[in-house]
Amino acid sequence: MSTSMVIIIAAIAFYLAVMLFIGFKFSKTSSASSDDFYLGGRKLGPFVTAMSAEASDMSSWLLMGLPGVALAYGLAEASWTAIGLGVGTYINWLVVSKRIRNYSQKINAFTIPDFFAKRFGDDKGVITFIAALIIIIFFIPYTASGFNACGTLFNSLSGGKIPYFTAMVVSAVVIVAYTALGGFLAASTTDLMQSIVMTIALVVVVIFGLNAAGGYDAVVENAKSIPSYLNFTSTFDYTKGVSAPYGALTIASTLAWGLGYFGMPHILLRFMAIEDVKKLKTSRRIATVWVFISMAVAIFIGVIGCAAVKNGSVDIALADGQRIIVEFAKIISTYGPALAVVAGVILAGILAATMSTADSQLLAAASSFSQNVLRDVFKLKIKEKTAMVFARLSILVIAVIAVIWARKEDSVFTIVSFAWAGFGAAFGPVVLAALFWKRANKYGAIAGMIVGGGMVFLWKYVIANLGGIFGIYELLPAFICGLLTIVIVSLATSKPSKEVTDTFEEVKSMK
Fold it and tell me: Contact 451/481 with Cβ under 8 angstroms?
């Protein structure tokens, strides 16, 4: 093994050790109660809230999926997706964060299924069970995408010497360890650190990538030479070698990525956990600025990568662009020990992006099973210590299922887009109705979750195959169907109880 490779592995090992240390550090604090384990006792400061929310949001998609799409297909899909996510981030912080923080504290809810059940006055556990089931169903592939990225990273880094599956399992063990030990506070603190490492990785790769590609002018000239590469209304598919229009309907469905934010449990939990609702404004500004800048840089890395591949500096297929940052890091490591450490930081950045999302997803999925299913639905009378054991076991079981799911090397972008659509359509309309429409009732919420989540599967695997106007991102039609269902069913059934509507008015009047 080369000296540069040893240094890279040492840098990554150090990073993983720090993550485990954080897990141990918060293990006692987070074991006091379910509230502490799942929501950190609502003690997050504004900076940690902002950066942990966005780091857990971006995932490996930021450093692998987004640059890969930009490299292989040009600006259209990557840019419209980024715009939709950026706008969605801002609106979510502006409109949802304060209301759900106040509401969840008012009704003493610390998981999303718990919030839905108490908000709509469902004491039979129907909403809780359906919401928990949706979280488990969609978080398994979402978490699998993170494990997938870890396996791809180490397999590529070692030139195939470290098997994909082995690398994925080792990464999963570390993530499970610090999440199970430290709970929400460990996940949020590591997310903050991971956002910093991700930022460093993006900056360094841009600087080095420009040099490898022959400079800024060479990058621009290469992009201009490719049909439709810089066009926002058409795209070029390298796998087929043809240009294709990127019309208004496709743009609208791509922008719909932003709708997903309203239903992301791991992001909504950050809103619920901030120590002071007045600090959300600061968090919003930090989060929005970071998201827009980081996505713009990630797309630019894809464009740089395209030029580097064309001039022979990087040896990968254009259609395999999600590996571009890994390849840049490998090249950087050959310029001496100091730069090998830098390469290790870059690769740790990919791990950071992956782990910051996977830990939050595991925690949300585990809370749905151990807290919402076992205690709320099946009414198991268990002590807090026993509940903590169930919570940690849930994390382990869900991680094992995710590893099995991720044993096949699928595209990170593809896996994430499906899971994102699932949460956006199943929970997004319900969250908005719960926070802003007093007339919404439990029947509408139940029907909306089922229709929204079900439509994601129906549209992606059946309707989208018809092509034409039906070949759009499944989140848009599924979100619309879920929202309409909530409105129709709520109006067609009985009004919420006076207790539920009085609570709604109290929260509405809170500042």
Answer: yes
